[in-house]
Amino acid sequence: MQTKESLNFRVALTPKAHRLADKFCQQQGTLPKAEQVYLNTLAVCAVNDYLQQQGLATDLAASDSQDGIMQTGLDVADLVVKNCGKLECRIVQPEAEVVAIPEEVWQGRIGYVAVQLNESLAEARLLGFVARVTSRELPLNQLQSVADLPAYLLNAKPLVHLSQWWEGVFEAGWQTVEALLGNPSQELAFGFRKATPLTAERMPKRGKLIDLGMELGSQKLALLVALTRESDEKVGIRVQVHRVDKESYLPTGLKLVMLSTSGEILQEVQARDQDQYIQIKRFKTKPGKGFRIQLAVDNFCVEEEFVC
């Protein structure tokens, strides 16, 4: 088991960080909220400085933790790491054995860093990190060393932010369904049955090319995702897998699995002989919630993580 001391990495809190924290806390209406925002800002600045020292590009200004409205409404301390996603920077209270992580930030994060400030607020200690959380309190002895954080971020696959699809913003690698399939019958199979010309315009859909590799004959599949707005303010989601080749079938035994962010299997379907595509049941979820989609056959497995 790792000790706290073995996980420590010290970062000086600069006058610039304190000025930024003071600016944000002055915008808050209550003393407890102002204190929360001040400390959260220092934690984010400490992690930002550490990552930049390690050569990773960040975008502090694009983080929710730098938005006055988000600060007031939420307990948020995120830092955008370019080409990766949002890293949450959580304060650890003095002498505490756990780090508190509010449920509102359990989704849409690529990791969580525990940060402890000294009494004078002149220095921060980065105690370690985890990739995922599923409870309000995380024991410090479950943290990975912060020395492993840069490598983790460099290898992390970015989250797919489905909320941006409504604005026409798509992550790299996600193409139009037409460009991927180029087959009217396949495109039709991917449509929503009750779609009208008007609603179809409001249904962003995209696909990603999946190469099964040489061991499986370099077969190419298309992972397709389509969205629709629901009357209860939720998002309807359909997920399918197609063969890109027009006259081919999916590999027998190919599994399409939907998991929660904690790894619990929520849905699973398996390809049979001569299946041209498979799909999980259409589902609805709330904005801000996350899920994972996994494709697996033989020794091949690929996974994408989404947040609505």
- Helix and strand sequence: HEHHEHEEEEEEHEEHHHEEEEEEEEE
What's the number of structural domains? 2
Q: Structural class from helices and strands?
A: alpha+beta
Question: Ranges with pLDDT <50 over ≥5 residues?
Answer: 192-201
Outline the structure in words:
By secondary structure, the chain is α+β, with helices and mostly antiparallel strands. It folds into 2 domains: 4-154, no CATH class; 160-307, no CATH class. It has helices at 4-7, 15-25, 31-53, 68-73, 149-155, 177-181, 184-189, 197-200; strands spanning 10-12, 58-59, 78-81, 85-91, 98-100, 111-117, 123-130, 137-139, 160-161, 174-175, 205-211, 220-229, 235-243, 255-259, 265-270, 277-279, 283-285, 290-297, 300-307. Strands 1-7-6-4-3-2 form a 6-stranded mixed β-sheet. Strands 10, 11, 12, 13, 16 and 17 form a 6-stranded antiparallel β-sheet that branches. It has a 5-stranded mixed β-sheet with strand order 9-19-18-14-15, with no helix packed on it. Helix 2 (15-25) packs antiparallel against helix 3 (31-53). The longest helix has 23 residues, at 31-53. It is elongated, with a radius of gyration of 22 Å. The protein starts with a helix and ends with a strand. Mean pLDDT is 88; it is low at 192-201.
